[in-house]
Design brief:
The structure is a single chain. By secondary structure, the chain is mainly beta. It has three domains: about 100 residues, Orthogonal Bundle (Cytochrome Bc1 Complex, Chain D, domain 2), CATH 1.10.760.10; about 140 residues, Sandwich (Jelly Rolls), CATH 2.60.120.260; about 120 residues, no CATH class. The protein has five helices and 22 strands. The longest helix is centred in the N-terminal third of the chain and has 14 residues. The N and C termini lie far apart (about 55 Å). The structure holds heme C. Heme C binds next to helix 2 and helix 3. The site of heme C has 23 residues, from helix 2 and helix 3.
Length: about 375
């Protein structure tokens, strides 16, 4: 019943008006690498569905304590007392939403012939392999043969009605909090597996999927858990461990990110404007480092390397972009914010607040104003 501990943590931190010690430390220290909203930068995102070192409370605590050897992530065991480190872990957990801690086990198919797929049945047979999926959704090695059992947790932040939507070929059972919520045998039409609604409060829940493929040469299982106002948590996908890059571009609004880019200082802010212009701003000396048009950021894709390899900016350099903006040596960077199409950078210059606005201009340029 371990999961029962976690919903309490999650819901208390959701309603807490005052920041916890973990949140305070995060905002003073961790954000420099993991981003102010945990969206990632030099270090990976701490809210997405990819957890190289595991997304369980234990795994997260382990990384906070001991760091990751050979990376910028140091261990904080000797830096903060245990209560602070636990509070950091709980702060990270309170920001999670969607599927986590997915474990996939594969079983010999012969055993399951003519038997109804239930968790009890799986307890009576040994799995041939068990893998904690770093991507938090099901993906299959090609040519995998067998019956699979996937166990996972789902972090719900929005109360409302949820349902599993599953397309598959073969037999599939879904158990939510140990109760069967879906069963289809191999005669069920593959596109009609929309399940009955489950009403959920914010918290952490467990579920499992039992699946036997109709043809054994490849798995054809697609699923998601869908919730209110368009919430959709994928249950299946392709492994990012291959070579699918994550492209970052601005939408109709500007986006500001920090990424490790070769030849740029790690503290550079990358302002992505809706006209596909990217402006690199140096927060240390208040200058424009460079700018590109028709540009996008190609984030390092593969998980094992994602912090060892820099991301890339693809685009054409805008000539003569490099220039100082805050000319005073007595300036201090404070914060940044995307506002509509523009990126705002706030600093204190000679004791007075100053805001730099970087806005799109035409198709391939940008404008800068200070106030
Ligand atoms: C100097 C930059 C830096 C700072 C500061 C930093 N991290 Fe990290 N962190 C990283 C990098 C880089 C990785 C990826 C390590 C790897 O897998 O190679 C990482 C990984 C992690 C992971 C594992 C993520 C995963 O995908 O499994 C967690 C959790 C984490 N950091 C939490 C924290 C917390 C909490 C703090 C603040 C106490 C912090 N980090 C401060 C750079 C940093």
């Amino acid at each position: 019943m371990k999961w029962l501990l976690a919903p309490l943590l999650l819901s208390t931190s959701l309603i807490q008006a005052n920041p916890t010690q973990g949140e305070i430390i995060y905002k003073q220290l961790c954000f420099t690498c993991h981003g102010p909203n945990l969206e990632g930068g030099i270090g990976p995102s701490l809210t997405d569905a990819y957890w190289h070192h595991g997304s369980s409370p234990e795994a997260i605590f382990e990384v906070i304590n001991h760091g990751v050897e050979g990376s910028e992530m140091i261990g904080y065991k000797d830096v903060f007392p245990e209560t602070d480190r636990l509070s950091l872990r709980d702060f990270l957990l309170s920001k999670q939403e969607g599927v986590r801690e997915m474990v996939r086990s594969i079983y010999p198919p012969e055993f399951f012939k003519e038997k109804r797929l239930t968790p009890e049945l799986f307890k009576t047979v040994e799995s041939t392999s068990q893998t904690l999926l770093p991507e938090n959704w099901i993906y299959m090695a090609r040519n995998a043969v067998g019956v699979i059992r996937v166990t996972a947790k789902v972090y719900i932040r929005q109360a409302g009605s949820y349902h599993f939507s599953i397309r598959r070929l073969g037999r599939t059972a879904v158990y939510f909090q140990d109760k069967e919520v879906h069963y289809s045998d191999d005669k069920a039409p593959k596109d009609q597996d929309i399940n009955k609604p489950i009403s959920l409060e914010p918290g952490i829940y467990s579920f499992e999927i039992l699946h036997e493929e109709k043809k054994s040469h490849s798995y054809r299982f697609h699923g998601s858990l869908n919730g209110p106002t368009g919430t959709r948590f994928p249950l299946s996908g392709r492994s990012l461990q291959g070579n699918i890059p994550k492209i970052i571009v601005a939408g109709t609004e500007a986006k500001i990110v920090r990424k490790w880019i070769k030849d740029l200082p790690p503290r550079a802010l990358l302002c992505l404007l809706p006209n596909k212009v990217i402006v690199a701003y140096n927060t240390v000396d208040g200058s424009i480092l460079n700018a590109w048009h028709s540009a996008e950021i190609n984030q390092t894709p593969s998980l094992p390397d994602r912090s060892q390899k820099p991301s890339e900016i693809k685009g054409a350099e805008i000539p003569e972009s490099t220039r100082p903006i805050l000319k005073s040596p007595n300036s201090k960077f404070v914060a940044y914010e995307a506002k509509g199409a523009a990126a705002l950078i706030r600093s204190i210059v000679d004791g007075k607040p100053m805001t730099i606005t970087i806005a799109p201009k035409g198709d391939a340029a940008f404008s800068i104003s200070t106030k």
